[in-house]
Each structure stands twice: as structure tokens, then as C-alpha cells.
Amino acid sequence: MSQDTFPINGVDHVRFYVNNARQNAYFYQHAFGFDIVGYAGLETGLKHEVDYLLKQGNTRFLFSAPIRPGHPMAEKIAQHGDFVQDIAFTVDDVDWSYKTAVERGATPAREPFSLSDEDGVVRLASIKTYGDVIHTFVDRNDYRGKFLPGFKDLNEPGDNIGIVEVDHIVGNVELGKMNEWVKFYADVLGFTQLVSFDDKDISTEYTALMSKVMANGSQTVKFPINEPAEGKKKSQIDEYLEFFGGAGAQHIALRTEDIQRTVTHLKNRGVLFLHVPATYYETLGERVGQIEENVRDIASLGILVDREEDGYLLQLFTKPITDRPTLFFEIIQRKGAKSFGKGNFKALFEAIEREQALRGTL
Ligand code: FE2
Predict the structure, then answer these.
(1) Engineering a disulfide at 228: which of 60, 158, 235, 305 sits with its beta carbon 3.0 to 4.6 angstroms away?
(2) Rounded to the nearest whole angstrom, what is the distance from the C-alpha of residue 251 to the centroid of ligand 1?
(3) pLDDT tens sequence across 95-110
(4) Interval 174-189: pLDDT, tens
(5) Which CATH architecture has domain 10-156?
(6) What is the Å distance from ligand 1's center to 46 Cα?
């Protein structure tokens, strides 16, 4: 049962397709505290696109933009807006990973290939997942450089705000497709299901959704997968699918060791968060018991708390980070809890519905 049938070391990087990589790099540097550490473009021999690499803790974001008319990337960006195009995995054997995944039913995106420069060799290959998202396998065991061959180093530091790593990335898929993608992660990548939430867990007066959380053998990669469920009004998942133009990554949860510091910085730099009503904190003590943080501080930042058997977690969600009501971020700090804040779903979804009502999409 505990046999890992598809070894993955972790999320290597998250690649975004965007209209303007330079401006995205500034935003994530200034607002989210990332360092801008790498660049590839015309000056490094790329003819049609530009890439900026950002890093904080073990989190790597890659922003890629087309720089000529008619680029295929531009079509995807026109369809989805800026979006998560690749959730890349670090593996030890790219050829085995690719061959095995395809044998088990994955759709190929790119066959194994090597990139090299004076710092060594990186082996890569990609498979498709939901929507226009791919998973690239990356083996950098024979590479001494910072990222990939062809990138030049940049040194434009941000103020590190305590972000450590990607905790989980949530995919929104079409009605009736959740179990297909759950099966894909189980059959192809050997993931197992950690938890499931149905519309009894995740429903408000108006909207509902279903969710299953898949994790790889070493639990270094966690992917909740959502689909809409029948509700009185349009669910947040329906809204996402409509504005995004299909299935895609809904939110990226970034783990911090100090959520108060992280959220304070983000707020000071203008990042907007969802608000829960003050009444949420009146019953906090009954729901979660003793916590190390000062409840008044937590409340003033609007941070949510949930407790489970093994401990508790603190979390908070941004409003959509793009023009479309699609991609957003979660900031999460874990104090023993391994789950996803089920106790906060109701307050959270009601907050999302208030935003949907303002957008006229509820
Ligand atoms: Fe989450």
C-alpha cells in the first residue's frame, strides 16, 4: 500500500504563460517578495519568447511571454488570460518517468530531450493534464547552474516574506470530470486520495462543489481537484470555468512559517484578500481551542484557523490575482495539521459569493 509507484521529489517550478513577463516579475518581486534570479530572451538566443525566473525559499515561478505576433503561446493567453501552464516535477529519471506515464495512459506533450551548457545537462519531458496544463519532468542531477541551461543569472532581490514552498495546487475541472482526473493521478502518477469533500461539506445556501485531494507517494505534491455541484446559483467553480475557458489551476497555496508576517507584507503591498465577517472570530475559541497566536492579531489580519486531530493550520486567500475571476493564492501556515481547512469552507465560500455577487456572476 505504501509502495511509491511513481517517485517524484517535489514541485520543481510553476510556469505561467503571461502577456508581459517583465511586469509580472516586478509584481511578484514587490508584492510577494520573490527574488528575480534568471532570464532568457533575445539576449540569450531565444527568438520568440522571454522567460523570467523568480525564487523564494523552495518556490520557483517561471513567467513566460511571447514577444512576436502569431506565437502559439499568445493564442492560449488570449483564451485563458495569464495562467498556470506547467506544474513541473523534479524527478531522478526523466526517461523512465515519461515512458511509464505514457504507458499508463498519459497524453504526451513533449518527448524526453536534453538541454546543456557549461554548467552541465538537464533532462526534460512533458505530459498533459487537465485543460492546457502540462507536467514537465525535470532531472537536474547533472546540472550545477541555478535553473536550466540557456538562462542567465539575474540578481534583483525581493524582500523575502517567509514563503517556503508550494503547499498544494488546486485544479478546477468540468462537471463530471473530477473522478476522471482523480483516476488519472492515481493510475498514471501513482497518487493516492487523501481526503474527499462532497456537497454536504462544501455548500452554502447558494453554491456547492465537490473536491478530492490527491497526493504523490511521498506526499510532497498535493493536488485537490474540484468540480462544480448542483446549487441554487452558479458556483465559484462554474464561474471559473466560464471565465477561464475550461479546466485550469484555480489556486496555488504557498506555505509560510510566519503567516502574520507574510500576510502583513502582502497587504502593505496592495494584495487584496477575501474578508470573513468579524463574527467568525467570536466562535473561534470554541471551534479550534487554544492556539499560540493572539486571536486579536489574527482577527485584525483576517486570518482563518482550522483544527484537526494532528494540530491546526492558519490560512488566508487572496482575491483573484488576474483581471478574470480565475487564479488566486492561498497563504498557509501548518502547525501540525495536514489537511486543507475544511472548517473554514463555509465562511470562505460565503466570502467568495459576496465577491461573485459584486461581479454579477452568482
Ligand atoms: Fe487550498
Answers:
(1) 235
(2) 7
(3) 999 999 999 999 999 9
(4) 999 999 999 999 999 9
(5) Roll (3.10)
(6) 35
